[in-house]
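Workshop exercise sheet. Pairs work together: one partner reads the sequence aloud, the other fills in the structure field after running the prediction. Swap roles for the next sheet.
Pair: D.N. / O.F.
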Amino acid sequence: MELRTLRSRRKSSFWGQIIPYLPYVFQSGVAVVLLILCIVFSAWYTSFLQALPPDLPIRWIMLLLLGPLTVYSGFRTYVQPADVIFLLPQESKMKQYLSPAYFSGVIYKLLGLYLVTIVAWPMYIRTGEATVPLWAMLLVLLLLKVLSAYGAWQELRIATSRARNGYRLLRWCFILLMLAAWIWLPDWWKSLLFMLLLSANYILALRFPMKHAVPWDSLIANEKAGAARTMMILGWFVEIPAEGQKVVRRRWLSMAGNRIPWKQGTSYRYLLTKTFVRSELLGIITRLGLLGMLVLYWTGDSWLGAAVYVFFLFMIGTQLSTLRYVHRDSPAASYYPIMQGVRIKEVIRLITRMLLILAVILWLPLLEASAAGSESALLFSIGGLAAGLLLVLVLRSNWNRKWSELEEDE
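Structure field:
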């Protein structure tokens, strides 16, 4: 069998397992919610464009919106652990297998980047800071995206994890610096010259570390993490165990959970806390919280700010609800003296505490906007906090009732 055909069959097999669950996703009301959000965002964005603040930091906004989307690169190769044995004799021909993963990884992420650029472009134009046409911005973003994808692909091949992390940091710095130069410098030819010099130095720097011809271990680990991420998203709507998620080493949070009493009744709380600290879910919650605070900073002095506050709190709660599937089918839970019936109780306890803390943190931009605004802004801020706390209590009650029934059925 040809390698390109093998990858195509694996891709079809994987998505063949996902597609049957999509009707359940739409039946849950996510399509209606997305449509309502699009309508609300369109109305708010139109009014925002009609009354732009004179001191709007548009360059920083464009960098924050486009920078992470330009740098981020990921690839779905559908590589399996058995390939280390069965495909190793064809390692010299693996380019046929891996090249579609590289191009699809660039194209799909480029579409999202272009969508955000086109949406933000009217705001960029109305401030008078845009010095280049839209087509030139899209072309530069394409070149930077290809360069970032090339760097990410080379990082996968680097032999040592320390060098891999260092070059990942280097890629973020170089791409963000080139994008900032394109946004800030008034003369486009100076920006292009600066970007060309940085690109040449970056490509040259990628030649120094030792690399594998085919990074089997990195490809297998990334593929497991990508598949687990997809299943975790489906787990928001359907009963699907999210397994094989990537474990992230966070030494600065290693003390979390150490103060939990060392006894049988709190053993699962200890295990759950340690797992949450080292999971990808913590990074997702952090990024979602920062994005929410940024949006609330812009919309905190109106009723829309309170609505956005409740929406982001609901989204974070939805993300945290995936903790219910942690160690449900894993043998790791059998290593701890876990008492019967405490698993759901500890999951709801941790989620509720996290939501209450995040409810206060997300409320801070609303409080700041109300302090500098009118009396109505203060009412919107207090009302938003009350609605957020009520949402946490409603979610807790719903999880407690629903998950307890499901646990009894299991």
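Discussion prompt: The radius of gyration is 24 Å. What would you look at next?
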